[in-house]
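chain below, 626 aa
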Amino acid sequence: MLQELRNQTSSWVIKILLGMLVISFAVWGINDIFLGDRDPAIITIGDVKLPRSQVNDEIREEMNRLQPLFGGRLDRAEADRMGITGQVVENIVNRTAVSLGARDLGVLIPDALVAQRITSDETFFNNRGKFDRAIFMQVLSRSGMNEAYYVANLKRDLAASEINRAISSAVPVPSAMIEPLVAFRSERRIAKSFLVPFVTAAKIAEPSNAEVESYYKANSQRFMSPELRDVTWIHLDPTILAAEIRVGDEKIKQAYEERHDEFTTRDRRELEQVVFASQAAAEAASVAIKAGKSLAESAKEDGKVKKPVALGWVDRREMLPELAAPVFALKKGAHSAPIKTALGWHIVRIKDVQTGRTKPLAEVREQLKKDIAQHEAGEAVFALANKLEDALAAGGTLEEAARQINLRAGRVAAVDRRGRDGTGEAVSGLPKGSVFLRLAFDTADGQDSALTESEGGGFIVAHVNKVMAPAVRPLKDIRAKVIAAWKDNARDKATETRAKKLADSIRAGKSIDAIARAEKLKVKTSKPFTRLTHDAESGLPAALMQKLFTLKTGEVAVSESTGGVTVAALTEIRAPDSKERKETTDALGEEIRQALGGDLFQQFIGAMRTNYPAKVRADLLQQNRQ
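prediction:
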């Protein structure tokens, strides 16, 4: 048959027909004939068309970046709902508009600059601190990019950076804008202060019934019970099932044999080495080492000292074949003779030795037993989950479904979102982790939740029996808490009253030191502080520092603090010296320049988007989510 076809195609008629077919492919496109438009453009901006595959890849990359924030549960539908997809599209449009603007302005990024950026990126360095093309290609492969795509993106980003830099560097910063900010940021103040400690509990009298009831009514919002729910649940917990599984000796022995490599530690050496370009330099260093010098002292070549490179702990498989045998034959502290490889002449020092061993079965028996039980429990959980779903689908209650699979349903009569009961105490016996409480409060009253995977590989389903709205707790149930809150309030008021009296004495002309001595309080002088100084550095509460910046020298401020109320008198206002003023002026000028440059760059993007309106095919974006 093949020969027949060959014979036929040799005729001039067939050749003409085949030629016409080839021309039709060239004119109409073989892709359209056989495949159709399988990767249509989703975004069109100017003469740039961005295909669906590229847009979906960038959406996927952003979702992967955000997965840790969502516990690994972020899917495409959720990304669409939260606007993540739209933001990615917006970024792509902005980026493309800037690229077109760069092209219009004639901003060209030379290949040499791209190469310099790539080879100086530590992401692509090997253990000797040098660019390694193999590592570069591996990183791109893991990221799903080829070299051309990466280089094109880097050129685009560099062009955008050049435009941004050009805009920012040309922004003038008026001195009238900087000077007030320099004064605001650089001015320092010093204060003397003392702490008025909280009045002791012994000095607070017990409240009367009328005082308790009055305080309870005036502060009823403080004594509200949160929303509570009566919930029934079934938890398929592999940890509990694993504890009931008996594992025989034969299974343990089989697992030990299958995982033998896991329990075997190979011989390892901690090494450092110097690689010489010439044999002569390596032999000279070897002679110096034999004479008693260290590797660091001996390693020289072409008049330059060569620093030994630490290789860390390695086994035979991680070394070049030429090095492995001679190096592993040496003892701790020894140096190898010069060894030739494709990289040069090596001298290796053995810093430490670790002899390999295989853990005996007795040593790992319990671990194997636990792992086997956990594995079997995991399989049992999936089987039970299927049976449970079938039982619930048949219309049974959680209690009935639990009985069908020989389990007991749990129930809590009242629990809040934090796992506490109506009195604020932690409820014991709830499923561990956050999934149960989330299901309990995301499920409507009288409804079953979906069977949901829980922490540790199990499954939980919950039924909400009743929802109890937030309400003020009865006084009789929380009387002790109300009395404690009343006493705390009375203590705060008494302490504040005492502090204000002492502050008034200072305002009346008495010195802060004299008042402190009379009251047996300790005076502290703060370090000079600015408006941006942290309270831990100044020793003053943040709220008090803010007050002190509104005062004149000699004036007094009072503020709550840890352990009581602090009284402070402002003793000095310091203007910045010339050196500090210049440093602050330069730093602020750069900050403002960057901020204004950023605003102008956004305006540039807006202008480019006006010049190059974008068309986004939202209908195609929703289709074929990859």
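The first strand starts at residue 41 and ends at 45. The longest helix spans residues 578-611.
thats it, cya
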